[in-house]
Design brief:
Length: about 325
């Protein structure tokens, strides 16, 4: 294993992996094969192209294009494919699932077929912990059932199953790694940590979905690259390996760390509900927050008859003293 085709190598994790491998293994040659979608950027590899000019090549191409894939494999005498290429953002997969099926499932098949035809030494698939679905108790093991919950996760699951099918059916020497949420340099600012860090820098609000209590295992991208490296060199053919910190953290904890790191106030945190589910039924609110507040305040001003008896009742006075007495320094005067 010395000549690698790294698909999706111009993306976030792929570009970190290419840099890491070229720095670590002086005898390796790496070809990045990437379609350069919105997520793929040559700037991610600018330093690599300069520093490793003789051991690095870039080919712009789609993994769904079998002829182009085979041409690149032959031209650079590749012995190993590491497939990072994918549509990767869960929120986008709800908007355009077809693109995910095309690249993450069909594209994986095209690469496997090329690896089989050319008799490559290894095919390695980069997968995700999202194939396991929601984990309510304990931790996901590699042997767990797969219960993807988004078009993204379902497409990645399809890709994984195709990889295993090529191992079972033709003995293709495959390995799979399933990583948790990666964070680090060159991550597109649609994912939560770069989005929040960049919003905070501009003093823009940080939109935390729901109550912010969802848990994620945020791992540093270079740790993930080291895990992939270990599986490439020491992993067993036909096997799957999870890669993560094994820890978890709520989104709100993560958000507070981002703000503390950048010296920004927690007042930037905004809890925002994702209402796209109901919007799918054709609903949309007719009032902005400001309009709703103004309209409500006006109603109370015009309808004293309704609230004054409530507020002067004994029940209400007792509640008020209990709830706000200490905080506001008020008694049960009402
Ligand atoms: P990314 O979106 O930053 O990069 C994806 C890359 O794939 C881009 O360079 C894009 O141009 C390229 N690409 C997309 N479609 C292509 C196609 N049809 N042909 C060729 N290239 C194409 O993604 P990332 O976060 O770096 O993720 C890389 C891989 O790691 C993906 O397979 C993803 O499922 C997996 N993964 C990501 C995470 C994470 O937290 N980001 C966690 C676990 C696993
Ligand atoms: P994200 O980085 O999009 O990764 P994934 O959905 O693949 O895990 O989101 C991580 C968590 O952050 C997820 O629980 C959703 C939440 N999130 C927010 O609260 N606000 C945001 O603006 C985004 C993008 C994500």
């Amino acid at each position: 294993m010395q000549r690698l085709l790294v698909t999706g190598g111009a993306g976030f994790i792929g570009s970190n992996f290419v840099r890491y491998m070229l720095e670590k293994y002086s005898g390796y040659f790496i070809v990045v094969y990437d379609k350069l979608t919105y997520a793929g950027r040559l700037e991610n590899l600018q330093d690599v192209a300069e520093k490793f000019a003789g051991r690095y090549a870039f080919v712009q191409g789609d993994i769904c294009d079998g002829a182009a894939v085979e041409a690149a494999l032959a031209e650079y005498q590749v012995d190993t494919i590491v497939n990072f290429a994918a549509e990767t953002h869960v929120d986008r997969s709800l908007m355009e699932p077809g693109a995910f099926i095309q690249t993450d499932v069909f594209g994986t098949y095209v690469l496997l077929e090329a690896a089989r035809k050319l008799g490559l030494e290894r095919y390695h698939q980069i997968s995700t912990d999202e194939v396991y679905g929601q984990v309510l108790v304990d931790r996901s093991k590699e042997t767990d059932n797969l219960k993807p919950r988004s078009p993204y996760a379902a497409s990645k699951t399809g890709g994984d199953l195709m990889v295993l099918a090529y191992y079972e059916s033709w003995g293709l020497p495959v390995t799979i790694t399933r990583g948790s949420n990666n964070i680090g340099p060159y991550q597109y600012p649609e994912k939560v940590v770069p989005l929040f860090a960049t919003n905070a820098m501009d003093d823009q609000p940080l939109p935390v979905y729901g109550d912010g209590l969802q848990m994620r295992d945020y791992q540093y991208v270079i740790d993930h690259c080291e895990g992939i490296d270990a599986v490439l060199h020491k992993g067993q053919i036909g096997e799957i390996y999870n890669i993560g910190t094994g820890e978890e953290m709520t989104n709100i904890e993560m958000t507070k760390i981002v703000l503390a790191t950048l010296g920004k106030p927690e007042s930037l945190i905004r809890y925002a509900l994702d209402v796209s589910k109901l919007a799918g039924l054709g609903w949309e609110p007719s009032h902005s927050c400001a309009e709703a507040i103004e309209k409500t305040a006006r109603w109370y001003a015009e309808n004293e008859w309704w609230w004054r008896p409530i507020k002067s009742g004994e029940l209400y006075k007792a509640y008020y003293a209990e709830q706000y007495g200490k905080r506001l320094g008020v008694g049960s005067r009402g």
